[in-house]
Prior knowledge:
Number of domains: 3
Strand order of the largest sheet: 1-2-3-4-6-5
Number of helices: 14
CATH topology of the largest domain: Glutaredoxin
Distance between the termini: 22 Å
CATH class of the largest domain: Alpha Beta
Amino acid sequence: MLCIGHARFNALPFLAEAVYLNQTSSLALSHFQQATLSYGHARYVEAIQHYLAGLKLGAAQHHYIYADLAKAYEMVGQWDKALACLDIALRLCPDSPTALRRKARVLDEKACYATLLCLGDFCKSPSQEFLERLQESSTTPAKQVINSEFFNLTCYSEMPPQTVWNIYRLIHQTRSELGVILGCYPITPVPISIVNTNGTAGSQSSLPRWASGCYDGSIHLAYCAVGEPVLNILYALLRHEWVHLLVHYLARGYCPMWLNEGLAQIIARPMFQSERLELAHAIEKQSLLSFDALSDPFSQLPARSRKLAYIQSAAIAEYLIQQFGFPKIRELLHELSDGTRAEDAIEHVFNQTLAEIPLAGTF
Length: 363
């Protein structure tokens, strides 16, 4: 399971200050308070709308507003709007550590996702054969279905044919690329569903509130946007869940969670610099999670530990890939498939004990 954002969004400190100074209208404050609640419930589009409505009514002098609006834009992949808001925040308060930290993170994320796809390759119009096979329902909500030899795609949000075509091509690309990496191609068509939560309270999704993708025999993806999905982000989500699919085939359900999530994370996209800094901070504090803690579902970990679990697992998987290469990773997954203990499989394949692999700590 992949999450776009893990950090909690605490109540904004400027609210009490603004009330005390009587510098912001009560209606504007109401919008900002609602924006905080919307963000906390992963309704990012709704949060953006409230921030913008509040700014029209006042409080434009508060850099906190723009820094937090930027974070909501970040969560829907609107990097340039996020950066514009952070530039305003930094003009109002040039030494704001929050705005400086968020700007560095957004720049890093934007650059990272830009490396995943050449968007110019996705301007080609849908083929006539594709358009003839695309099934569109008139139900509410709208549904579009396209089946292929390798997967069955259902989009539960209204999209133009060009967007469905681009997603269709992304899935083919993912199947091909990850099939080469892990040496595995599903033998039956993979069910894939995609829904735009649109950041509204009435949005329906089978995923947990904080999730944007999961694999449970089918691949489910959810994105939050006013309109079109951000293809780079959708591609990373798809790659993450497709890795889970292949690991399930190769290890037959015996893969420890740290390896399963670690491979999915690091194959889906490179680690962000902010994630590497968080990992370094955990190492410095000696608060890394143990392999035992990382072997069970991350949903069973305390909420404060889940983000570190994903980051730490990605770093461990990155180390194994760099040290031993994907052929050995495939060999490890096959070794696990008969129920061999992870400790024994790792020692047999890598000639290292589990304890000798870096980045595991004590819980």
